[in-house]
């Protein structure tokens, strides 16, 4: 059982700088957990604590039921794929993959076998005798993964492995990594700042911000029901439209606000771009809202069209997504509507999700 | 790394401390000797604590010279060393900047030949060609002169190499923008390249100053007059006297004086100069 | 070596190059050429007539016991100092590379001897090892050994070796430290996760990646021993006793002074030149091959 269990884990540096605060969650055996968040949110620090590359200031980390706080990285039965691959430049691909096994005195025959298998899985067979500098970025990335795979550890750790690849390659590798993990069935923890990667790879998504966990759950659940304003704006592209509704400073250009269960102190109203539809008539949908937008720019990308505009009156920027091609001249005004169940309300001060029942 | 072995840290500290002691001890001993009097030293009774004669010894060495040897007040050789070191540093930097600029930023016939002609000198320090160089200096009537001390030593290419490496890292776009702005080569050099090069120039200055200050073989060869000697040679002159009469305290004081300026510069400009040393490796 | 954009100048580049080329030609190539030429000459005792004798001077050198002694001394000197200076400084650099408190202070304290002239280093150690009043020689006497560098060849050699090594530790330390710090931390971490102990990490990952620096320092140290140690020898032992500390450079100096045989001295210079060129060529070859990561 290779479950990874974090219990109130925290990290404080020597100068009292706090990187991670009170993190608790459990990654099930064979699960693919993604830690996502902006730069500096503590996700890499957390990963490195699990790996043993950083000391754990508070709390406990358990791998496979064993507390590993004081255990050396090499004894935690983990393998890690680094952002810059960290391949040993003076060794061939074969030796790079064999290094860890040789250190553990694995017999040569077995080393050969494991490497052959990994090379087949990752299509590295033609490169085994080459040195890293003779490989492309994507190939090096595969070698880094190969090195992790042959170790047959309990847990794989990934530290932004795709950041250094171009967009197209990234898309390809994403699919491959997901398939590989499913096939090998090894518990994996993956760090990235890219929300798209997070959404597509995770069984279990952990959104982090300034050292704390904002929300944990299934990616689509986080998408449809973000628990905080931060998650709402971080997950999903383009980011969710957020309109601040403060008492006495209500933006104009919105119809239907009276019907919403607004707390007296005000709230953030959230609505995703794809849930805003061009109004077909002049009214407000029952229980929903209507936005009058002065259109600034229209981006037609083929399968859909993005309309960027500003709320008439208040100038708040809004993005709408319409399927297919839509022709709207810039500078005109158009109305968009959304229904009640696609709306989100967040507390003005705390950012916590408010019920819309 | 999690590896929490305070022992290992302790051992490291110990090793480093031992290293520091080995490095510092000889100088400390010299300093103690330079503040003691001759009799104490001659009797082998030098203590580990500085003696009382600091002012007396140093003043004597600087302004009066020693009794038994050349009677040369060391303030003069100190000045000579200063002139020589500054001359070499400035001279070398000046001609190297010009050469590196020419080679990198121009295309002209024999460019590569000039490059190799200059860089071959990297391989052979002055010690290898001392006597013929001496003859030339002598024929040019430059013996016993600052010019003779300085000019032959600015021939090597270390500074040119560093500046070349540095110029290679200056973005092409800067030159292109300059050209569009109507700047000719000299203007580009003065207005753009030089200000950018302050760091390597400063680093080179430190390195060349030390190189010039510490020269030994060359000054010995070409200076005969006592008042043209450099401080580094001054030490040796004091030691020339036979053992029994060697004024060790004066020799040590001179040694400390000879070490002081370069060491001060190195410590004060440590970051800069370290960078310069590391860059020349590449 | 090529910039994408350049200036086109007809006269300017030559004018810019002129100072360095002039100095180089007059004070480097001309003397070097002279040295080669003179090595084929034989001057009579009064320096009046010279005779072209082809390789006689070289033959004489290679039949001279003293010359072989100088080669031997230089070789011993070079090996011992290089090995000692490199190992000690590597050890210190590895310790300083660990993120210890006070690492910066150690660094400063270990670097400043770079500013010390070799001759000064020699004098410092000479003082401590002076047979009658040196602090350290007292200690040796206590152990029962009759330490006297002016009489015993071995002692003199040790004195010179210690001074030379001491002086060179800083530069090596600095460059080793820089080399160590240029190894990406993630490589070390990957090796740690891969099960390599600290010792294994050092020898299988760090040391191989340090090899460009090591090779470079090897050459620099050899050149240092060949040439820069002149000051130490001249001030401390004068090449004695009986040629025990006479290196090739010192011999060039000695053999040429005071109207001595310039032809022989020139021949020695030429041989030295060839040795250094060979060393540098070897370094370039090696570096070229091993270095590009």
Describe the structure concisely.
The complex is a heterotrimer of chains A (357), B (282) and C (293). With 282 residues, chain B is an all-alpha fold.
Provide structural commentary:
The complex is a heterotrimer of chains A (357), B (282) and C (293). With 357 residues, chain A is α+β, with helices and mostly antiparallel strands. Helices cover 24% and strands 32% of the residues of chain A. Chain A contains eight helices and 20 strands. In chain A, a hairpin with a 2-residue loop joins strand 4 and strand 5. The longest helix of chain A is centred in the middle third of the chain and has 18 residues. Chain A is elongated and about 75 Å long. By secondary structure, chain B is mainly alpha-helical. Chain B is globular and about 75 Å long. Chain C has 293 residues and is mainly α. The relative contact order of chain C is 0.13. Chain C is built from 13 helices and two strands. Chains B and C meet through helix 1, helix 4, helix 5, helix 6 and helix 8 of B and helix 1, helix 3, helix 4, helix 5 and helix 7 of C.
Shape of chain B: globular
Distance between the termini of chain A: 41 Å
Q: What proportion of the residues of chain A form beta strands (DSSP E)?
A: 25-35%
Low-confidence stretches of chain B: none
Structural features:
heterotrimer, A: 357 residues, alpha+beta, 6-stranded mixed β-sheet, 8 helices, 24% helix, C: 293 residues, mainly alpha, 2 strands, 71% helix, globular
Write the layout of secondary structure elements.
The complex is a heterotrimer of chains A (357), B (282) and C (293).
Chain A: E1 4-12, E2 18-27, E3 32-36, H1 43-51, E4 58-63, E5 66-67, E6 78-81, H2 93-103, H3 108-122, H4 137-150, E7 155-159, H5 167-184, E8 187-192, H6 195-201, E9 204-209, E10 212-217, H7 219-224, H8 229-234, E11 241-245, E12 254-255, E13 267-271, E14 277-278, E15 289-300, E16 304-311, E17 317-323, E18 333-338, E19 343-347, E20 353-354
Helix pairs in contact in A: 2-3, 2-4, 3-4
Chain B: H1 6-34, H2 38-42, H3 54-64, H4 75-105, H5 111-120, H6 130-139, H7 146-150, H8 158-168, H9 172-180, H10 185-196, H11 198-213, H12 217-222, H13 231-239, H14 248-268, H15 270-281
Helix pairs in contact in B: 1-14, 3-14, 4-8, 4-11, 4-13, 8-11, 11-15, 13-14
Chain C: H1 12-38, E1 41-43, E2 50-52, H2 56-62, H3 65-97, H4 103-111, H5 118-129, H6 135-142, H7 153-181, H8 185-193, H9 198-209, H10 211-228, H11 230-236, H12 248-256, H13 262-290
Antiparallel strand pairs in C: 1-2
């Amino acid at each position: 059982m290779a479950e990874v269990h974090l219990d109130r884990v925290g990290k404080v540096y020597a100068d009292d700088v706090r990187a991670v605060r009170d993190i608790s969650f459990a990654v099930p055996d064979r699960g693919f957990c993604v830690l996502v968040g902006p730069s500096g949110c503590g996700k890499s620090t957390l990963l490195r604590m699990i790996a043993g590359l950083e000391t754990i200031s508070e709390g406990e980390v358990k791998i496979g039921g064993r507390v590993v706080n004081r255990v050396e990285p090499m004894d935690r039965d983990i393998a890690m794929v680094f952002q810059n691959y960290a391949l040993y430049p003076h060794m061939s691909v074969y030796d790079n993959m064999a290094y860890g096994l040789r250190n553990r005195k694995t017999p040569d025959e077995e080393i050969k076998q494991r490497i052959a298998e990994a090379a087949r899985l990752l299509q590295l067979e033609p490169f085994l005798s080459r040195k890293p500098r003779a490989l492309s970025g994507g190939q090096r990335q595969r070698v880094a993964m190969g090195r992790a795979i042959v170790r047959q550890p309990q847990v794989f750790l990934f530290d932004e492995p795709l950041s250094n690849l171009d967009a197209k390659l990234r898309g390809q590798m994403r699919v491959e990594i997901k398939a590989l993990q499913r096939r090998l069935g090894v518990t994996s923890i993956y760090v990235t700042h890219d929300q798209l990667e997070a959404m597509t790879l995770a069984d279990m998504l952990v959104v982090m911000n300034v050292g704390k966990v904002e929300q944990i759950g299934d990616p689509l659940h986080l998408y449809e029901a973000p628990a905080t304003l931060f998650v709402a704006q971080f997950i999903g592209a383009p980011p969710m439209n957020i309109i601040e509704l403060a008492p006495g400073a209500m933006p104009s250009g919105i119809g239907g606000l009276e019907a919403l269960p607004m707390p007296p102190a005000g709230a953030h109203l959230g609505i995703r771009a794809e849930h805003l539809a061009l109004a077909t008539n002049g009214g407000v949908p029952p229980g929903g809202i209507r936005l009058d937008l002065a259109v600034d720019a229209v981006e037609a990308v083929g399968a859909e069209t993005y309309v960027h505009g500003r709320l008439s009156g208040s100038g708040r920027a809004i993005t709408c997504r319409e399927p297919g091609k839509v022709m709207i001249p810039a500078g005109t005004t158009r109305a968009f509507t959304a229904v009640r169940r696609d709306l989100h309300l967040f507390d003005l001060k705390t950012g916590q999700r408010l019920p819309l029942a | 790394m999690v590896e929490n072995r305070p022992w290992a840290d302790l051992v490291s500290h110990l090793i480093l401390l031992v290293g520091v002691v080995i490095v510092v001890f000889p100088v400390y001993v010299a300093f103690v000797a330079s503040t003691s009097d001759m009799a104490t030293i001659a009797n082998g009774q030098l203590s580990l604590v500085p003696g009382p004669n600091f002012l007396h010894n140093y003043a004597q060495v600087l302004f009066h010279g020693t009794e038994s040897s050349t009677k040369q007040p060391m303030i003069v050789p100190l000045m000579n060393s200063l002139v020589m070191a500054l001359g070499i540093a400035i001279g070398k930097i000046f001609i190297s900047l010009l050469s590196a600029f020419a080679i990198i930023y121009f295309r002209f016939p024999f460019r590569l030949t000039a490059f190799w002609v200059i860089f071959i000198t990297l391989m052979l320090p002055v010690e290898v060609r001392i006597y013929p160089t001496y003859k030339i200096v002598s024929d040019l009537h430059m013996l016993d002169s600052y010019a003779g001390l300085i000019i032959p030593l600015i021939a090597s290419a270390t500074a040119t190499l560093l500046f070349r490496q540095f110029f290679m890292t200056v973005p092409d776009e800067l030159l292109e923008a300059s050209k569009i702005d109507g700047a000719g080569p000299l203007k580009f050099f003065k207005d753009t390249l030089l200000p950018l090069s302050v760091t390597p120039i400063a680093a080179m200055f430190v390195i060349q100053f030390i190189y010039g200050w510490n020269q030994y073989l060359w000054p010995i060869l070409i200076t005969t007059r006592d008042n043209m000697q450099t401080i580094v040679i001054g030490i040796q002159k004091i030691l020339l006297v036979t053992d029994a009469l060697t004024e060790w305290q004066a020799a040590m004081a001179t040694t400390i004086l000879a070490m002081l300026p370069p060491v001060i510069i190195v410590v004060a400009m440590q970051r800069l100069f370290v960078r310069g040393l590391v860059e020349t490796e590449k | 070596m090529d910039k994408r954009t350049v200036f086109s100048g007809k006269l300017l580049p030559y004018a810019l190059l002129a100072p360095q080329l002039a100095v180089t030609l007059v004070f480097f190539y001309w003397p070097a050429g002279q040295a080669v030429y003179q090595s084929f000459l034989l001057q009579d005792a009064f320096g009046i007539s010279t005779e072209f004798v082809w390789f006689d001077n070289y033959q004489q050198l290679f039949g001279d016991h003293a010359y072989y002694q100088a080669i031997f001394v230089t070789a011993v000197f070079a090996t011992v100092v290089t090995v000692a200076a490199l190992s000690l400084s590597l050890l210190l650099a590895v310790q300083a590379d660990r993120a210890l408190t006070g690492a910066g202070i150690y660094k400063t304290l270990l670097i400043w001897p770079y500013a010390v002239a070799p001759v000064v280093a020699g004098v410092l150690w000479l003082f401590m090892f002076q047979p009658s009043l040196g602090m350290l020689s007292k200690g040796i006497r206590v152990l029962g050994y009759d330490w006297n560098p002016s009489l015993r060849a071995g002692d003199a050699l040790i004195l010179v070796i210690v001074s030379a090594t001491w002086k060179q530790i800083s530069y090596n330390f600095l460059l080793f430290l820089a080399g160590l710090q240029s190894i990406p931390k993630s490589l070390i971490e990957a090796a740690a996760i891969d099960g390599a102990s600290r010792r294994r990490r050092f020898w299988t990952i760090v040391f191989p990646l340090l090899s460009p620096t090591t090779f470079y320092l090897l050459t620099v140290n050899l050149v240092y021993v060949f040439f820069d140690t002149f000051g130490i020898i001249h001030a401390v032992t004068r090449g004695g006793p009986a040629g025990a500390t006479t290196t090739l450079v010192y011999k060039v100096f000695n053999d040429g002074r005071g109207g001595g045989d310039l032809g022989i001295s020139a021949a020695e210079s030429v041989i030295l030149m060839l040795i250094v060129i060979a060393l540098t060529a070897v370094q370039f070859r090696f570096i070229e091959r091993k270095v590009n990561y």
